[in-house]
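Quick one, probably user error.
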């Protein structure tokens, strides 16, 4: 019970996503639930988390906006994953990830991870500690967008 409570609190805190160049960020997290409809079909809904348990599917949404008066360029958005969440991918596939707390970055397919016995193996989605999107294009003043990634409570 305590684990569920602390995980819920950690997920409700504002994300620590980071950006620069007068780009403001806000983040939300939702639980994805399947709900039976009266006609016998199932709908997928996103709800604000009150309590989460292992196996819950989460959707993280990071909104970005250029709040400056000039275009923003060459910036990135970085979001650490809560330790209790296993990474399940992004909505656009343009991210790079870290499996070592943000020290090294790359596509998951090229990263490696040291296993408990000291051997190095290919990194897995469950090893991801941070997600990053690099914006190499200009974001005009007032422009905004969102980035979405998914995870499962461990």
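Nope, works fine. Designed sequence:
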């Amino acid at each position: 019970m305590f684990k569920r409570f602390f995980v819920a609190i950690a997920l409700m805190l504002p994300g620590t996503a980071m950006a620069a160049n007068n780009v403001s960020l806000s983040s939300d997290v939702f639980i994805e639930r399947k709900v039976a409809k009266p006609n016998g079909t199932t709908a997928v809904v996103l709800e604000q988390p009150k309590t989460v348990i292992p196996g819950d599917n989460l959707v993280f949404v990071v909104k970005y906006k250029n709040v400056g008066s000039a275009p923003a360029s060459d910036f990135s958005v970085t979001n650490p994953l809560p330790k209790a969440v296993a990474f399940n991918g992004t909505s656009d596939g343009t991210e790079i990830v870290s499996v070592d707390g943000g020290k090294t970055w790359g596509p998951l397919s090229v990263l490696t991870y040291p296993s408990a016995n000291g051997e190095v193996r290919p990194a897995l989605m469950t090893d991801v500690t941070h997600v990053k999107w690099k914006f190499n294009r200009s974001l005009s003043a007032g422009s905004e967008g969102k980035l979405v990634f998914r995870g499962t409570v461990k």
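The chain is about 5% helix and 45% strand.
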